[in-house]
Amino acid sequence: MKTINLLVGGPTDLWPDSLRQGEIDGDWIGVDRGNVWLVQMEIKPLISIGDFDSMDQSEFEIISNNVSDIRTYNPDKDYTDTQLALKIASDELKADVINIFGATGGRIDHFISNYLLATEPKFRDIVEKIRIIDKQNVIQYFTPGEHEITKIDMMHYLAFIPMNVMHLSIHDAVYKLDNYYVERPFAYSSNQFDGDKCHFDFDNGVLCVIQSKDA
C-alpha cells in the first residue's frame, strides 16, 4: 500500500509527535511553507508545490537547494495548493493513502476549506484515501456502504459527522444508531468504541469519522 504524506502550512504546534520525530512512513509532498519545515527536519519532499507567496527569498532558496521537482503556481488559480497536492498524490503518484498534516489550526477558513475537500465532486474517487491528522485528531471520510474501523492507540473519542442527508447505522460503539434518518449535516460527537473495532453503514453522500483525544 503506497502512502503519500502532505505537509501544508498550518501551525506547527498541532503536529503529532510522530511527525516531529520523523516516524511517519511514506514519501512527502511539501505544500508552500510546509516545504521549508520538511527540509529543516531533513525530510526531502518528492515534489514541492505552491505559489510560495508567503515566504521570502531565503526560504525559497532552502527549497530550491534541496528539492529537484518544484512546481510554482500563480496565486490567482482555480485550485488551492492543497487541492493541487491531492491531485498530484492521486493522479501522478498513485497513492493508496493520503495523509495531510498541517491542515488544522490557524485561520479557520483554511481549515474549513481543507475539511470540506471530501465533499468536492472532483475528489469523489479518492475520498476514502484522505486522512487529516494532527496531534489530537485523525479525520477520515467514507462513501456509502458498510465499513469497519479500528481504534487508534491513544485516541479516546469517536465522532460521526454526516455531510449529507443519509440513513446511518452505528454498531460496536457506546452510542448506537439503527438506520437513523439524518436530515442535515450534524456532528454525533463524544462517542467511544465498544471494543477495538467499530462497524457502521450509510446510504448516501459522505460521512466524516474522527478519532480524537483531549490535549
Give a concise summary.
The chain has 215 residues and is an alpha/beta fold.
Can you tag this structure with a few keywords?
single chain; 215 residues; alpha/beta; Rossmann fold; 2 domains; 10-stranded mixed β-sheet; 4-stranded antiparallel β-sheet; 5 helices; 18% helix; 33% strand; nucleotide-binding; ATP binding
Per-chain topology:
Elements: E1 3-7, H1 17-20, E2 27-31, H2 34-40, E3 47-50, H3 57-64, E4 70-72, H4 81-92, E5 97-101, H5 108-115, E6 130-133, E7 137-142, E8 145-150, E9 157-162, E10 166-171, E11 177-182, E12 188-191, E13 197-202, E14 207-212
Question: How would you characterize the overall build of this protein?
Answer:
- It is built from 5 helices and 14 strands.
- Strand 6 and strand 7 form a beta hairpin.
- Strands 4-3-2-1-5-6-7-14-9-12 form a 10-stranded mixed beta sheet, sandwiched between helices. A 4-stranded antiparallel beta sheet has the order 8-13-10-11, with no helix packed on it.
- The protein has helices at residues 17-20, 34-40, 57-64, 81-92, 108-115; strands spanning 3-7, 27-31, 47-50, 70-72, 97-101, 130-133, 137-142, 145-150, 157-162, 166-171, 177-182, 188-191, 197-202, 207-212.
- The chain folds into 2 domains: 1-135, Rossmann fold (3-Layer(aba) Sandwich), CATH 3.40.50.10240; 136-215, 3-Layer(aba) Sandwich (Rossmann fold).
- It is 18% helix and 33% strand.
- It is α/β, with parallel strands linked by helices and 215 residues long.
